Amino acid sequence: MDIEQLEIRQHMAQFAPFEYLGDEWLDQVATRVEISYFQAGTDILTLDQEVNELCYVRSGAVEVSRRSGQLFDRLVEGDIFGYSDIMRNRRVRFPVRAIEDTLIYFVPAELFDALRADNDDFADFVETGGDRLKATIDQQRSDNQMNSTRVRRLIRRKPTMVDIQTPVGEVARRMREDNVTSVLVLSDEGEEANGPRHFMTQEGQVRRLAGLLTDRDCCIRTLAENLGGETPVGEVMSTSLITAPSDASIYDATMTMLNHNIQHLPILYRRRPIGVLELSDVMRYETRSSLYLVSSIFNQSGLAGLVRLSGDVPLAFARLVDEGADAHMIGRTMATICRSFIRKLLELGEAELGPPPIPYCFMVLGSCARDEQTVFADQDHAMILDDSFVEAEHDEYFQSLARFVSDGLAACSYPLCKGDIMSTNQRWRQPLSVWQGYFRDWIENPDPEALLHSSIFFDLGYVHGELNMLENLQGLISRLAPRHPFFLAAMSRNALNRTPPLGLFRTFILEKDGQHKDAIDLKRRGTAPLVDLVRVHALACGSSANNTIDRLKDIADTRLLPEGVNDRLRYAFEFISMVRIRHQALAIESNESPDNRLRPDNVESHERHNLKDAFEVLSHAQKFLKFRYPMPSTSSRGRGR
Amino acid sequence: MRDWPQRLQKHYRRWQWHRRGKLVSEWPAYLADRQKKTRDERLEHYFAAGTFDPQTPISDVPLVALDVETTGLDPSRDSIVSIGVQPFTLGRIPVAQSRYWTVKPRRRLSDRSVIYHRLTHSDLANAPRFNEIVGEVLEQLAGRLVVVHYTRIEREFLNAAAKHYLKEPLLFPLVDTMAIEAFHHRRLTWLQRLRGRRPVSLRLHPSRERYNLPPYQAHHALVDALATAELLQAQVARHYALDTPVGVLWE
Which residues in A lie closer than 8 A to residue B86 (C-beta atoms)? Predict the structure, then answer.
């Protein structure tokens, strides 16, 4: 290959979709391009002109306009155009004009068709615009082992299983023989063989997974309770079984253990236990500072220790980014860390103030509830109290507890919520029935203005206390929301308040009206509107998931969104989140305080393309939202009630 | 004007002359004459293809960018080490049609020029001599108007090599992107010169920058040929009408 073609090849190989091509195809492209220069202001493609070539911007900049003359897009070095027309009818639909002196490489259509036929990534890219994102996200994902490795890889032996009648002493001896720290307890009770805990053993018997006994249970639940070795294991085992499927990722399994504060996790294939994962297995598999951080939070005995640990949070965050974790993992880890702080603070608070007089549930809202937290997020939390609540009698306790947690969190660098959405605010520290009233009111009498401030309450995350109180509220929401078009319309109206820019162009942000800005708030203009948008769809389909990605999965099961949109939203969300996360990690590494304001000069050119695509996905989805949840006519208003 | 370098004065006068509407029209006659007199088959073949009527619009003319790399700047002592050609038109540059030759120099390569264009002694030891490839080169140039950046090097070195190996001169019309650049970017007014403004660089790559053309690796005959082709497209787009007669541009 001649050196001149090497120049061409080197340049094209940096940009999608050519970066997906193998060497031979790249050589083909580089030796067959034709080059042409266009002075600023001249037309490159005119409306309805015949096109037989894909156009690649080698240098300069071009503007793509709609038939009406309205600005559609601006492209720079490494961008391609004209290809969608080749795939359609070879007539130009969107005219293109050089807005700077521009050098274009032309790739012949036959070669373009051959590339599409031969290379799936190339084809995907040109056939669905948003898939530059997919490729990037998939790439990031496969780069990260912990995320992609299934938990079954860590299971090295079959679980030790005992019958529910076995005396604890014998179980202890089995544990010694098998050299394990836990056993699974089975029973054959219960006639219905289709219960969630029932499974078929390899010998073909139907058994039920009744519980789990760990070496610690032998000690605490047996010896410490003055029970003898003859006690049947069924009486001392723990029955609140948390399990994970064998194809869960190691990361998911680990988070499950950390979130429930357990050390042993039975792993099921279909419903049959194939082993027990121990937290130490994971630690051995991959040492990650964030996991250590969570376990050390649980081991602290006072606020001072927590405050000291909180200094490590930004570092753990930066390290996760370094190690190539994706946005989903990072968001979840940061949220888990935050919840661990709260849980520990509640534990410390309860130790200081005494046990709670009535049951309660402590919940987080917003990004922490969605498992999408980044560093230095505001604290947003609330308390649901039992309906036996009597203000005069009980409120002092819960107020003190709320203050203890909130001040503690503030000391741990989780700033107080500016909107005062915290359990210290009496409004957000109410009995379940009052909470139910709040939600009924929000949903049944929607007022966009009021909902603007309460959308955060539709992301509810459990932290501590009575889980069923929170589930009750979630159930209420998922029952009511789909039946109230007015509510959905109001929510979608609010979700359209913040729009993405057109894209990044050179050293500035290009707004849709053609204006230039020098920075963009990735949260306000990117992730937040996406979260809002997905939330509306999730509410409409009665999903009780909190995480945006999980919500998208629930939405995918319905027919709410056109085919393909769901995936594109997911990629767009992951990508923008990741840019935001990396931006913050960069600030942490250079000892600045992280923010959400991205300046285009800090963005690499291929990232710039992806970001633009992601904004476009968001923009399309917003348009669809407007049309999907219109404000119903007044007559239909009563129907939902 | 007297303080200008000799070469620029020459360019300036020539462009003055162009602007009076005079065309360099002797070329077709000269080439026809050479075709009759030449004893070399390859040269005859080349001259037979002729050239264009000086009135032909530049946009109708098939072009070819030519670049030679040499061991030095003196045609009587130094020789050609590589030749790159890139056929093109004002509309398109088809990269697939480019050609490149390395040439064994008449004399040993100096170490200085090795650094300059990265061709080593061993690269050139097995390369063909100029007379072995001149036929192929002329085939690429035949029927096309040759475009170079800085006439002197290409014209004088090709002529010197032809005289040495073929015992005949080799001259043909050339469009010089450097001369075009000098004409459009180096005319400083006496006031500008009084204020000490330095004239802009006319070398290939700084010239390209003025048209927003990308930087390429310099001093490779083929890359420079491509760079020259792009530069001419840009110059014509910026300074000339598409129907500008070739006679205005060639020299």
Answer: 4
